[in-house]
Write a structure and sequence with these properties.
302 residues; Rossmann fold; 31% helix; globular; flavoprotein
């Protein structure tokens, strides 16, 4: 038995040593941004840190707990000179991080007062393949939208730098939320992308739909009187917020009709139930003919 066990155990120990060495490297918090509804953004720098879109890291804050490591998706783009995560305050550890960063105080906090942070990673995810397709569907559920913040930022940087060499030509983005609380920080990014695309006369590059799944049309009647206004009253975007859940069969058929003969990447960060639905739709809407449209499903679950 030991002959079969010693090899994997040696590799496991090597991997743990590498992770320990990476976690000891110095990390500097350069900026802390407080977003609405107790969500904070930590912008950090670390020597030799390299990332791809949609990757995640493990974070430890010894001031809060000397042993706990927590995974967070990177929300920055590889083209930026820092890496960032968004942390929603929903438990003891995140509350401790919130207080350690001085977010509970009104006065300005000096950088040297920021707590020490240990970072292990980054680690790869399915979202890294988004630039391998000409057309993609990005589906985020709730806080599962975070990897697509990185993707959309990186797409914009690449688009501005050299749009002719960018293989990705069309993005269909879907964001499903139970309530309006999660909209605040991400809506700012979408507003910026929306304005910049219009300035470059390519508003069709990004199509997005935002769904409030915790509401129905009866609850939304208060906002119906504002439907004719130029911008949505909830998000401030030109695209109006939708209520309920998407009809995925119609969405897949519509996209398949617009892109015949294409390989379309479907990327999800969300719950397992939604993953099953999208996987089934990807299979049923892909054609048997190799020259026909094919949906390639990729997922991350939380």
């Amino acid at each position: 038995t030991w002959k079969w066990v010693v090899g994997p155990m040696f590799l496991y120990l090597c991997e743990r040593l590498v992770r320990f060495w990476r976690s000891q490297q110095k990390v500097v918090i350069t900026k802390v941004v407080i977003h609405p509804f107790k969500t904070i953004e930590l912008q950090m720098m670390k020597k030799g840190f390299k990332m791809e879109v949609g990757q995640y890291i493990f974070v430890k804050c010894p001031a809060v707990s000397k042993l706990e490591w927590h995974p967070f998706t990177l929300t920055s783009a590889p083209e930026e000179d820092y890496f960032s995560i968004h942390v929603r305050i929903v438990g003891d550890w995140t509350e401790g991080l919130f207080n350690a960063c001085g977010c509970d105080k009104q006065e300005f906090q000096e950088a040297w007062k920021m707590p020490k942070i240990a970072v292990d990673g980054p680690f790869g995810t399915a979202s890294e393949d988004v630039f391998s397709y000409e057309t993609v569907m990005l589906v985020g559920a709730g806080i599962g939208v975070t990897p697509f913040a990185s993707v959309l930022k990186s797409v914009w940087y690449k688009y501005c730098h050299d749009a002719t060499n960018l293989k990705l030509k069309k993005i269909y983005f879907y964001w499903l939320c139970r309530d309006t609380h999660a909209f605040e920080w991400f809506a700012d990014l979408l507003q910026s992308l929306e304005a910049q695309m219009q300035e470059r006369n390519n508003a069709e590059f990004l199509s997005y739909n935002i769904y409030l799944t915790g509401w129905d049309e009866t609850q939304a009647t208060h906002f119906a009187v504002h439907h004719e206004e130029e911008k949505d009253v909830i998000t401030g975007l030109k695209q109006k917020t939708l209520y309920g859940r998407p009809n995925w069969e119609n969405e897949f058929k519509t996209i398949a009709g617009k892109h015949p003969g294409s390989r379309i990447g479907v990327f999800l960060c969300g719950p397992e139930g939604l993953a099953d639905t999208l996987n089934k739709q990807s299979i049923s809407n892909s054609e048997a003919d190799p020259r026909g449209v094919h949906f390639i499903f990729n997922k991350e679950n939380f």
